[in-house]
Every structure is written in structure tokens, then in C-alpha cells.
């Protein structure tokens, strides 16, 4: 009889442990969902991003080197702009392609999202980008993010000298001037 009692107690403890684990997993999923919602609000689609022919909005931002950039100074000629998030796997895939395929004499600007997570990954991403282009660190909802209507990452744009989007997309292949030759 004590063997049966021991088995029931052991089974009850396993059930309680399983329940506690389930609660922890659900809590963690809720936290991740909140983080995702901060980067891309529910219901938003890529349609909120600027399409070819649209003008970028006004913004003022400071680069990691302390220089001020705004919509006028950022587009004094054809300019390539890339938005990247350190917590986004596709961003890590597209970043090397973006840097590799930029024309050497191109005007560029990179924006790295600071969503409060992954400070080490963000620092590594900024370091890689700074070697090639000015970098702005922005939070979701900052002027520069809103000026381009970015709601999903990565986002890349080719602008003309008037700040009009010539091409845009989420992959380097979506930018005609950066496609592999």
C-alpha cells in the first residue's frame, strides 16, 4: 500500500511541476508577444512603409558619431537607407548583403532599432555598420522610423536627391540597384 501511496505522491508532484512549467512558458510567451507588438503593432502590414514615388517625412536624428541628420541632409543625392533590428534574424541575414553590395561612393544611412533587448547584439550590429555608413540608433516610434513608415525589419530604401523613394523592400534583392550582378 505504501508503494501505491508513494506513486500517487510522485505523480502529483510531477503534475504540479508540469503546471508550474506551463505557467512560466505562458508568461514568457506573453513577454515575447509584447516585444513583437512594440516592433510591429498588430494589424500593421508592409503597406504602411513608403512605396516608390512617396516622399519621406520630416525627421531629425543624431548619429552614433554625434552628427545631426535630417531629411534634407540625409538625401543630398541618391541615398541608400537601411533599418535593422538586432533581435531580427532576417536582419542578420540581410546586413552583410546590404553592406557588401552598396556602391563604394554611395551616400548611405543605417538605422538600428533599440527595443531595449540585446544590447550586445545591437552594439555588434552598430560596429559593423559604422565601418561603412553613419548609424542612427532609434527606438520604435522615433521620428526617423515614422518618417519612413517602418513597421517591419529589415527595411531598405533607395532615395533620390529630393527624398522620394525610388525603391524599397525587406531584402537586398528587392532593391534593383543592389541586386547581385
From TrEMBL:
<keyword id="KW-0472">Membrane</keyword>
<keyword id="KW-1133">Transmembrane helix</keyword>
<feature type="region of interest" description="Disordered">
    <location>
        <begin position="45"/>
        <end position="65"/>
    </location>
</feature>
<keyword id="KW-0812">Transmembrane</keyword>
<feature type="domain" description="Thioredoxin">
    <location>
        <begin position="50"/>
        <end position="181"/>
    </location>
</feature>
<dbReference type="InterPro" id="IPR013766">
    <property type="entry name" value="Thioredoxin_domain"/>
</dbReference>
<dbReference type="InterPro" id="IPR036249">
    <property type="entry name" value="Thioredoxin-like_sf"/>
</dbReference>
<protein>
    <submittedName>
        <fullName>TlpA disulfide reductase family protein</fullName>
    </submittedName>
</protein>
<dbReference type="Pfam" id="PF00578">
    <property type="entry name" value="AhpC-TSA"/>
</dbReference>
<feature type="transmembrane region" description="Helical">
    <location>
        <begin position="6"/>
        <end position="26"/>
    </location>
</feature>
<dbReference type="InterPro" id="IPR000866">
    <property type="entry name" value="AhpC/TSA"/>
</dbReference>
